[in-house]
Amino acid sequence: MSMLHTELTIDAVLDATGLCCPEPVMLLHKQVRELPAGGVLRVLATDPSTQRDIPKFCLFLGHELLEQQLTADIYYYLIRKKLD
User: Fold this and answer.
1) How many helices (H) and strands (E) does the chain have?
2) What's the CA gap between 33 and 36, in Å, rounded?
3) For the domain bounded by 27-49+57-84, which CATH number is listed?
4) Which parts of the sequence belong to the UPF0033 domain (predicted)?
5) Residue 16, burial from CB neighbour count under 10 angstroms (0-12, 13-18, 19+)
6) CB-based contacts of 84: which residues, under 8 Å, 6+ apart?
7) Cβ-based neighbour number of residue 15 at 10 Å
8) Which of 54, 65, 68, 84 is most buried when burial is the number of CB atoms within 10 A of its CB?
9) Which entry of 1, 12, 21, 65 is annotated as an active-site residue?
10) Alpha carbon of 2 to those of 22, 27, 61, 67, 80: distances in Å?
């Protein structure tokens, strides 16, 4: 995680490692619905298509993609659910 978000409270974690498109985004959609407004979700995935799909998901639905990283073949994302 970057230094920018070291003190950020993570409200939920979605482990989508080992899953292939479209499963990570389907699970992401379900998990985001369960988060409170402004809540932060950490997503772990191994499917390279999440690099394209998760940012588009956030943009389309109005959520904030706080961070996107690749470490040791695992993609990490921090997403803040929109406030409304």
Assistant:
1) 2, 4
2) 8
3) 3.30.110.40
4) 14-38
5) buried
6) 37, 62
7) 13
8) 54
9) 21
10) 27, 24, 24, 8, 16
pTM for the full model? Answer: 0.90
Tokens of 9: 């409270």
Q: Smallest Cα–Cα separation from 65: which of 7, 4, 16?
A: 4
pLDDT grade for 3, boundaries at 50, 70 and 90: very low
% pLDDT > 70, the chain: 93
> Both ends of the chain: CA-CA distance in Å?
27
pLDDT in tens, 10-40: 999 999 999 999 999 999 999 999 999 999 9
